[in-house]
Design brief:
Blueprint lengths: L1 H65 L3 H44 L4 H9 L4 H24 L4 H26 L4 H28 L3
Helix pairs in contact: 1-2, 1-4, 1-5, 1-6, 2-4, 4-5, 5-6
GO cellular component, one term: vacuolar membrane
Keywords: Ion transport, Iron, Iron transport, Membrane, Transmembrane, Transmembrane helix, Transport, Vacuole
GO biological process, one term: intracellular manganese ion homeostasis
């Protein structure tokens, strides 16, 4: 009798452990799935913000290298914001829409060969990329990044102070964007922030130096 009770207890314990393992496995799979679904909008948002920040700041630095007027720098930055946001949105829309067309065509070919259940079809449709979402994320992120150097330079009349403030503000924003992208994607934060920061510095320095060189040559 005691042996029967022990075996029943062991069976219940083994069943409970098995259920817990299955639950943990499902939770891990769900977590991995959530991170994979982030990749589409995260890539577009981080790329757009970094591009808007670096390109607008570089344009303003380049114009500032040959013309120290605050109005010229602000107008140049604003034009870069509008043009860049439109360019990013259109490019992202076309790129993601091409990816969507390829995946839809592949799904149609697969469904001709295999009869899927309704549940499987819904899951496939949910994994399809969204071109409008990607385009909107790119445009919004680009505009957000481009506003940093514009706001930094808007209220500073002295040229040298203005340039220093732009560089400082852009550097802090680059570190922030790099850290944010790494944190959301579970990547090394320090390496990501440093890579973005060095790239931004290099872009601004090259634009400033080359524009200064061409401007001083009298072309």
């Amino acid at each position: 009798m005691a042996s029967n009770q022990t075996s029943v207890h062991d069976a219940k314990f083994a069943l409970s452990v098995n259920n817990m393992e299955q639950q943990m496995s499902l939770e891990l799979e769900k977590e991995e799935f959530d991170y994979s679904k982030r990749s589409q909008w995260l890539r577009a948002a981080v790329l757009g913000a970094s591009d808007g920040l670096v390109s607008t700041a570089s344009l303003m630095m380049g114009v500032g290298a040959v013309k120290q007027d605050i109005k010229a720098m602000i107008l140049t930055g604003f034009a870069g914001l509008v043009a860049g946001a439109c360019s990013m949105a259109i490019g992202e829309f076309v790129s993601v829409h091409s990816q969507l067309d390829i995946q839809v065509a592949q799904l149609k070919r697969d469904k001709r060969r295999v009869v899927d259940t309704e549940e499987e079809k819904e899951g496939d449709d949910e994994n399809l990329p969204n071109p409008v979402q990607a385009a909107a994320a790119s445009a919004l992120a680009f505009s957000t990044g481009a506003m940093v150097p514009l706001l930094a330079a808007s209220f500073i009349r002295q040229y040298k102070v203005r340039v220093a403030v732009i560089v400082a503000a852009v550097s802090m924003a680059l570190v922030l964007f790099g850290w944010l992208g790494a944190a959301l994607g579970r990547a090394p934060a320090a390496r990501s922030s440093l890579r973005v920061l060095v790239g931004g510095w290099l872009a601004m320095a090259l634009t400033f130096g080359l524009t200064k060189l061409i401007g001083s040559s009298g072309l």
